[in-house]
Amino acid sequence: MLEDTLRVQTIYIVATASESTLRQRSTFPKHTPPTDSNASATEDAPKKVIKSVFTSAEKTNSLIALAGLTALAIISRFYKINEPDEVVFDEVHFGKFASYYLRGSYFFDVHPPLAKMMLAAMGYFIGYDGHFLFDNIGDKYNDNNVPYIGLRALPAFLGAMTVPLVYMTMREAGFPILTCALAAFFVIFDNMLVTQTRLILLDSMLVFFMMCSIYSYVRFYKTRNNPFTLKWWSWMIATGVSIALTTSVKMVGLFTVATIGVAVIWDLWELLDIRRRLTMQQFMNHFYARAIGLILIPVVVYLFWFYVHFAILTNSGPGDDFMSTEFQETLKGNTMADGIFVKYGDNITIRHKDTSVYLHSHEHNYPLRYDDGRISSAGQQVTGYSHEDPNNLWQIYSDNVENTKIGKQVKDKDVIRLLHVATSSWLLAHDVASPTMTTNEEITTYSINEDGSRFNETTFQIILESGGDKLRTMASNFKLLHQSTKVAIWTHAHKLPDWGFEQQEINGNKNLVQKSNLWLSDNIEGKNASEIDQESSKAVKTRSFILKFLELQGKMISHNAGLTDSHPYQSSPIEWPFLVKGISFWTENETRKQIYLVGNPLGMWIAVASLAVIIGVSGADLLSRRRGFYPLNQDVQKRFYYATGFFFIGWIFHYIPFFLMGRALFLHHYMPALVFSYMVLAAVHGFIFIEGVDGPISDAGPETRPRQLQRAVVPVIAYASGIILMAIHLGSFLFFAPLSYGTSAPSVAGLARRKFLPQWDYHFAK
Amino acid sequence: MYTSENIKRRNPVGSSAGRDQGPQQQQDDHYNNSQNQNRASVDPYGPNPLKPAFQHQQHQQHQHAGTAYGYRDYYGFGYAPSRREYSANKYIRFYQENDYILIPTLLTLVSFWTRFRDIKSSDYVVWDEAHFGKFGSYYIKGDFYFDVHPPLGKMLVGLSGALAGYDGSFAFDSGAKYPDINYGFMRIFNAFFGAIMVPLAYWTAQELRMSQAACIFAAVLVLFDNAYLTISRFILLDSMLLSATCFVFFCLTRFRNERHDPFSLDWWLWLAMTGVAIGLVSSIKWVGLFVTALVGLNTIEELWDLFGDLSLPKTTYIKHWVARAACLIALPFSVYVASFALHFAILQNSGPGDAQMSSLFQAGLNFNDFRNNPLYVAYGSKVSIKNTGYGGGLLHSHVQTFPEGSGQQQVTCYHHKDNNNNWFIKHAKSEGVPEDTGSPQILRHGNLIRLGHEQTNRSLHSHRVKAPVTSAQYEVSGYGDDSTVDANDEWVIEIVEENSHHPKDGQLRSLSTTFRLRHRILGCLLTAENINLPQWGFRQIEVTCDTRNRTNSPHSLWNIEQHWNDKLPAGEGTLYKSKFWKDFWHLNVAMMTSNNALIPDPDKEDVLASNPSQWPLLAVGLRMCGWGDDAVKFYLLGNPIAWWGGTLSLGVFAFTVCYYIVRRQRKFQDVTPMEWDQFLAAGKLLVGGWFLHYIPFCIMGRVTYLHHYFPALYFSLLLFSFVIDHFVNRPGVSSKVRNVVWAVAFAAVTFTFFFFWDVSYGIRGPAAETMKSRQWRGAWNIIDDHKPNTFI
């Protein structure tokens, strides 16, 4: 039995095998596992130069496995892709963005543009014109004449193509066919990957490009003994381009960059080792080459997609408001270009930038006594009102009574007074607590007819934060700083009680630096309306690409971090590997169908166990080596750390950083990590059941020492256990398939059976 | 030691003087050197000339003994050279022979002077004296109070008050003028702890094998840091926390230097001292856990080193584990528990903190009125209801409504006693029993009740609406009133346990009976799991109706705490003693819960709070009191040179380590292996200490203040001195350069300290006039009151 399992072939290459060239090439004598009698029969030239450790029969088998798995992947992703013909979950966003690209109207999203542009391109090729805006989950596609199947085909295809990439990556990393197939099989039949990659979402592209990066890097690493060859360069640049594409889909791609970055740094560190006998010059060549291939090229590719993004989106659109005035002025049809200079004496409306309410006042007073017993000034209410109304008009006056400056333009840092036109009273702030916030000042007005004793409380300094040094409508964001008490006029989305007609509270904010202090002048009405046409300039301005890019990138990052609003289906990263919580994607009340995102529970739980095995084995190995025992065969250990460990690092890097994020997170953020965890699972299965490893797998270089050729032995138990795992996984997949595809509605009892964990809050479960 | 002549510095690859031969050669060199009488070759600034001579004997003795750590860390942070040159002048010689006593003594005296002088300059309650002075008063009076910090530091404040003859009657209102109490003594008591940081810094630097100049510089950095000075001079916990942290670190380095001789008396002594010290520091503030983590990591590293020593007998290895477990886990834990035992022993009277504790504990306090509670609870009784979970509060409601969900009146758990905790037990409407039917009907297991809130008349209500935070469970709200008939207001009493000598007869007794409240319609259990509501709920505890039916969770168990019913006889006052461990755990959970509630309010910008990113480069100061022109004003601000230098040294150290590592990969030997190990071992502890005391503040959501950086600062200050020391003691640096560098460093730190003198000792007169030149950074609000908005 022992001999049976340790049939590792060891054939030494004679160092001088090709003495005539004085080079030690990759001249592995043809080797055949004893089990393969056909192959051994054909072995007639032992010194024949072979390129691969694998026999041609094995290669054929591998190709067959690859083709079969790819076919399964395509079927799994395209099965009933026309259902449901309704907008599902985040198709609301990404379908909409594709439409905006097709219309060319500017929008804002926290993700980089590539995947959305791919969707738009797909739409363009199938003749979709972007007329539909995907406004609500459940909107009918067929009724709106949207070629959604074509749009879904792109993510579904790339989702399917991830499977052969997983297979080939494992294969290139030197794992036997069984192991590779196991990994691919788990990726095919994971419910989360299926659901998420057959809809109009970005994650399919993300995972696809991520696997391209990993595959390319593995190929690149295998050519390391022949540096600076064409093959070496090609795979390195392929890696660089792939990581750039991944990052151009979602910023999560930076985790892929980090994974590969760590591997590259480690590789460079090894090259730096004096025993590698590289001169400093040679080392720096390695360094520069990687800097070009893995930093410079990716940056250019990443920027390129933004360039295309700006080139397509030339019209004003829903994303205008996110951007600076200068940026908006580059868009066709933007309102900024209409901005006209405000002059003293003009009647203007003043709108709060964040909450879009108008500064408003009306002939009602604050109640003298609030519910909590505090007392107010009982002055006229100043509120935030969200609709157009004559009570929103304020006339702008200089603080200088003698020199009224009427007709002169209002400039930055000018001190002004605001007269409420409808009630003829001055805007005023004073040291009285505001209705709902005791820390802030009440804002009120006082009549123009009263004496001037409160003059000092009515002066405000106008501080422009953008749009030049003169006040313009739309273009200028400004703060109104109360002169005598140093508070800024401010409002927040907090409704006043009945006495305030549920309008928004406005008060004086002591914190002057808050972004929410900003207001803009919306419109000029009355007096100078006739001048508007003369003053306005409609020209679209230009702005350099780099400035536009930097602004957009900054906004993306800050908005992404700002997505902290809680969502009923959000989850915390610690829950993901254990699949504690799912996401309801779509429901249909009449048929009681639903799409509910959960991973393949059994598969994911097995994967988590395999991650634990990795930690356990490496820990045990570390401890025993510290005590002078070397429990693992050197090659097995190397494969364990270099290949399995690399995938494990991939899992770590695509998972752990989420713990540091403050934003709302969802189960589907685990998808990239999930793919790695399945690869680890297959590798761990191999580690347990398969004896030895196939090797060497890397290309030999001119200085490579002759290496021992070895073959892995895959015993029956490995096949048996592999098949059992696949069966469990497939069974679990099929069990949950109705929820993943949304094609049939399980009964209430059926849903209850599928509720493995109480937190899976299905619809129609009662 | 080597000199630049006998070691080839940049020995190229393959040279016979390679690294692999280094260690043995180094040891031999040292050994020979110490026999060698050629004194000229000894660098007078070499590492640690300060080690008392008797210890060198020991080092040599163990030099060739079997080593647990290999040559590497055999000496902890390296070893001391053995000889010095003495002057012929007898005074100088006397100084030289005794400098290891004279220098720290002098530093300590200066430290006392800076910390104690003019300490009564402000006769009003400054900053958090309002808290800690008050807590000290409670110990003097014996009133039970609650605070988020462990008790040791506050007990010391109480002790200082007791020693000062203070009777605990002063309320310590913020900004109030001190009455006739000796607050100066109380402040000096605190300042003493701040003062001993200076000699501790000196000795720690010595243990880290810094040169004499560097040891003095480290001590001077601590001595002349304005922030350490200012914070030490008031009745606060920070000076105790800081000195205890310094003491832990000192013990740790001291213990590490004993590693050549495990299980010796000194080894045991310093191991135990480290344990006691981490117990003390953790009993002052939980921030002490960070330095405990440093000790923990160091211990793991040591055990890992020992694990790799194949010559070490297994029993010895196990002994190492046991020794550390006993001294670094059991011992500190005992100290921590002892501080709580003392806390409970001193605070015997009912006080403001009662409501945080279990009802039984409260009943055991003097002057508590629970013993007047009528024993049996009946329909019509007015009660307050206590959650029995650790850290549980009282069932509470107030007029504010839920901003989401049903929008009905909030129901929470609250830790303070007020009238909003009072509920009337009423008959369920569906039973149709008229209220007030004469003789009170005692509540029994299975009775159906409705709970009416005394202040708002709303009924305790639950329905199929998601709870605000724990969205998997149902919301509990206040809804309707006596005239409303709603089946969702009805709860079933399930009696669980009887904690008294009374028989378990299914009757509800106040204090001693625990029960569940099960919603009649939904079947869920009234539960409060120590989860804080957001700001709209005033960060009180969320109350939910839990559908999971976890009948054994203490968070779904309740007991009647206060009970009023005129129709029932007052209780006879038999009290049951609560158990110490339960109280201990209860208090700790309550502290944790309150601590978690201290998160910044997004609606309210706190001018005092600052962001951790503002600390290392001192982008922010802190006004400790009112800023009126006639007040003596204290501004918490570090010595900028020290702070910036400390932060810079972190970067320099990281860069230097990277540089050396990369160079070593190419087999360039910039430093000898011995130097390298020493450099790394000391640097690791210092940088690790800084990180462990800084990074957690960046991660935790709690509101943070400038003084949270002070423990981390200590490590960066030591590192500052350490890094300068490393660079001026390189071969090729002449003694002239060395002296100039040290002179400049000392002068800069000293000058800045005196320049910012008023900031620490009190700004008198309008700040705008006197402080203009001190405004080194625009973000400091030393003159203008503005919220700093720069993060760097």
Automatic annotation (TrEMBL), chain A:
The chain crosses the membrane at residues 114-134, 146-167, 173-193, 200-221, 233-266, 287-308, 602-620, 640-658, 670-691, 712-737. It comes from the Eukaryota. It is a multi-pass membrane protein. Residues 339-399, 407-466, 468-524 form the MIR domain. It catalyses: a di-trans,poly-cis-dolichyl beta-D-mannosyl phosphate + L-threonyl-[protein] = 3-O-(alpha-D-mannosyl)-L-threonyl-[protein] + a di-trans,poly-cis-dolichyl phosphate + H(+); a di-trans,poly-cis-dolichyl beta-D-mannosyl phosphate + L-seryl-[protein] = 3-O-(alpha-D-mannosyl)-L-seryl-[protein] + a di-trans,poly-cis-dolichyl phosphate + H(+). Keywords: Endoplasmic reticulum, Glycosyltransferase, Membrane, Repeat, Transferase, Transmembrane, Transmembrane helix. Residues 24-41 have a biased composition (Polar residues). Its EC number is 2.4.1.109. The keyword Transferase applies. PROSITE patterns: MIR. It is found in: Endoplasmic reticulum membrane. It is an enzyme of class 2 (transferase). The keyword Transport does not apply. Pathway: Protein modification; protein glycosylation. Residues 24-44 are annotated as: Disordered. Pfam families: MIR (PF02815), PMT (PF02366), PMT_4TMC (PF16192). Transfers mannose from Dol-P-mannose to Ser or Thr residues on proteins. Belongs to the glycosyltransferase 39 family. This is Dolichyl-phosphate-mannose--protein mannosyltransferase. It comes from Linnemannia gamsii. The lineage of its organism: Eukaryota, Fungi, Fungi incertae sedis, Mucoromycota, Mortierellomycotina.
UniProtKB/TrEMBL annotation, chain B:
Residues 1-62 are annotated as: Disordered. The chain crosses the membrane at residues 184-204, 210-228, 235-255, 267-300, 321-346, 641-662, 683-703, 709-728, 740-757. It is found in: Endoplasmic reticulum membrane. SMART domains: MIR. Pathway: Protein modification; protein glycosylation. Its EC number is 2.4.1.109. It holds the Pfam family PMT_4TMC. It is a multi-pass membrane protein. It comes from the Eukaryota. Residues 374-428, 440-496, 505-563 form the MIR domain. The keyword Transmembrane applies. It catalyses: a di-trans,poly-cis-dolichyl beta-D-mannosyl phosphate + L-seryl-[protein] = 3-O-(alpha-D-mannosyl)-L-seryl-[protein] + a di-trans,poly-cis-dolichyl phosphate + H(+); a di-trans,poly-cis-dolichyl beta-D-mannosyl phosphate + L-threonyl-[protein] = 3-O-(alpha-D-mannosyl)-L-threonyl-[protein] + a di-trans,poly-cis-dolichyl phosphate + H(+). Keywords: Endoplasmic reticulum, Glycosyltransferase, Membrane, Repeat, Transferase, Transmembrane, Transmembrane helix. It is an enzyme of class 2 (transferase). PANTHER family: DOLICHYL-PHOSPHATE-MANNOSE--PROTEIN MANNOSYLTRANSFERASE, PROTEIN O-MANNOSYL-TRANSFERASE 2. Belongs to the glycosyltransferase 39 family. This is Dolichyl-phosphate-mannose--protein mannosyltransferase. It comes from Linnemannia gamsii.
